[in-house]
Amino acid sequence: MRNLKRALSLGLTATMISGLMVMGSSAASYADVTSKNHQEAIEVLKSVGIMTGDEKGNFNPEAKVTRNEMAVVMSNLMAYNVKTYANTSPFTDVPDWAEPYVAACYTNGITAGVTATTYGGSENLTTAQAALMVMKALGYFQYQSDFENDWQLSTVKQANKIDLFEDVDAPVKEAINRNELAQLVLNALEAGTVEAEKNGQDITAGDITITSNVTYKYVTSGKDYATAINDKLATYTDGTHSSGAIVELGEKLYNGDLTKKRTTDDFGRPANQWEYQAKEVGTYADTADTVFTAKVTSKKLYDAVGKTAAEDYKWTVSVDGVKVDDFSNSTLVKNKANDDADVLKDVWKGMGTGNGVITEVFVDGTDKTVDVAVIHQYAAEVLKVDAEDGTITLSGLSEGKVVDAKDEFEATEFAEDDIVIYTYANDKIQSVYAAEKIEGDVTSVRINTDANADGKNTDPGDGDRFTVGGTTYKYNKTMAKADKLGTDNVNNGVVAYLDAQGYVAYIDESAITYDYAYVLSMGNDQDKFDQDSHKGTTYYARLVLTDGTIVKVETDNKSSLAGHIVSYSKDKNCLLYTSPSPRDC
Asked: What is the pLDDT of residues 237-251, one digit of tens each?
């Protein structure tokens, strides 16, 4: 089990593998932008210069957007030459820095003031106001009659028709932040541009002109640039097709320099790959339909995708980016009632699902496909931080994966000796985040368990756990069995590190506290059964504890440890067997 000798051995091992430094790359453009934000939208807009961060390298995704700031975004979006609009707006409340942008948007009908001479630029922008501005850029709302009786209701109705609010979570009447605005603008770049078509006569009453029977039809083109982002043909409401593709706003503005194509990312997830002027912006995975963070059984997977997808769709399964060739959905269907075993237990080196393993499931009803991406999370120690290059070097601490010395990972927020959790695919580190540290006295330990209550032992070890401070922790699947706590750790101190799902990914051996004893002598007391084979023999040891007390204890160790220092549990009153495979007293 764990004793001083093993702790020293682990320390030596860590030193030896510290030279095997692995480095990978990070796609994040801003230090304060994470996967919880609209990273795809933020980075695409940065690449084309529509929305950028501050001088400190932050995007400030949670900051509210003012009307003045939105004028800057819209001017960048439409590529207005703002200098030519300077000092032309009728508004008296616009600061000098914003005036050319507000003037450009006002002149081109993108925005209007709250009064004839007041713009209200310092006020927060609502989601509905932002949507109206970008839809004017698309060609909608060219006439007063488009607004009917309620501009806000008409805006929301039209925005929903063209999926402008897809993945935008901000309430339409509330202030929008930079994160949600980025997604709204990206949706606009992927939306089709339109032209207004009048079918009736204008009605003029005094100074008011009413235009009736206005319809909006997509702008289409047969030229290559019209397929740079989306190559689908235009379909009108009468069911007819155009002779070309819909010209999306991003295609119109960048004339084919901004491109998007469907692909898969390094983990095998369906994704968008963006390029601008032939340079890759990034590859961004779709949002999964179902996400598991523990063992996935056949029943759970079958129930998640449904009968049709399970039985009839084409399946692709990848584990840490490696495609699993021997996975068959027919086996899944056959075992659809099995809620015990890991559905991927016997494929790809046994690296299937489990505690702390992220399993993302993508179901595409249009293409009739199911993609499953299994992503393991591994523990590592930060060995080196290169502030000049903005990179870190890691040393792997988990079972089954050691980071590779040829890779770099771009990061600046970590320090040497930090314990982190990383993911790995396509021969490089894909992500790194700080592990959560817990410490305290261990009050209970369970080992060699089965996570299933019925005791079928389909996935031994999934239920291994220990309790600290009243909280019970299970282990990440990548934790080596030999690194788990044993019963000799009860009442001893421990320092452990958790992944984002709360599973233990690493235990700091050097921080574990033990009670130690010196073995004076060892012997046995054979009973009357099986004396020849020693099967019924009880073994004893006489120990000197650290306080000088001499005690006699039972032990499972049949080899003499006389003259050695061993770990000792007072509550158990036994000496533990100290081989690499732990054993209970």
From this structure: 555 666 788 999 999
DSSP string, 102-152: HHHHHHTTS---SSSS---TTSBPBHHHHHHHHHHHHT---SGGGGTT-HH
Q: Which element (helix H / strand E) includes 432? A: strand 428-434
- Residue 355's contacts (CB-CB under 8 Å, 6 or more residues apart) are 293, 294, 295, 462, 474, 475, 476, 477, 501, 503
**CA angle, 443 as apex, 440 and 449 as ends, to 5°?**
115
Task: List, in sequence order, every residue forming a beta bridge with 441; answer none if it has no partner.
Answer: 493
Residue 371 phi, psi dihedral angles, 5° rounding: -115, 130
373-420 tens-digit pLDDT: 999 999 999 988 998 888 999 988 887 666 865 567 888 789 999 999
- Residue 478 to residue 397: CA distance in whole angstroms: 9
Single-letter residue type at 542: R
The string of DSSP letters for 517-547 reads EEEEEEEEE--SSSTTTTTT-EEEEEEEETT
Residue with tokens 């007041």: 118
What is the distance between the alpha carbons of residues 206 and 209, in angstroms, rounded to a whole number? 8
d(CA 583, CA 252): 70
Question: What pLDDT score was predicted for residue 236?
Answer: 63
Partners of residue 270 on adjacent β-strands: 264
- On the question of pLDDT at 145 being above 90, the answer is no
In the chain, the largest separation of any two C-alpha atoms, in whole Å, equals 118
Rg (CA), the chain: 32
SS3 10: helix
CA distance 344 to 356: 15
